[in-house]
Fold:
Amino acid sequence: MEVDSAESSEKKDESPPAEETSEEKAKRAEDLQRLLADKKSMNCLTGRYSLSAVLTHKGREASSGHYVTWAKDDKGDWYRYDDDTVTLSSAEEVEKLSGGGDWFTAYILLYEAKEPELE
Structure:
């Protein structure tokens, strides 16, 4: 059995890690904030998404029918955009956009990236 001389000469430090000082904790939190800000600027977020809009089609044929959009605002309220008419809607109504017959069919879904949450 051969032993690498570099490995055999290394001493393993098995002592417990030193307690982190309040200054070190503050620096680590500052570094984390900076890293998250950098990730946001690079569009490197969490990989999690939230539905923000749904474009729908109502009609039995692709060559005819009507398009309506449901979109969520910054507060989380859903609105229905039907030509020049905008009405307040609900998440429950958006969830029913599975289509069928003469009801609206979800055609295009738009998602918004979710930002990381700080612990």
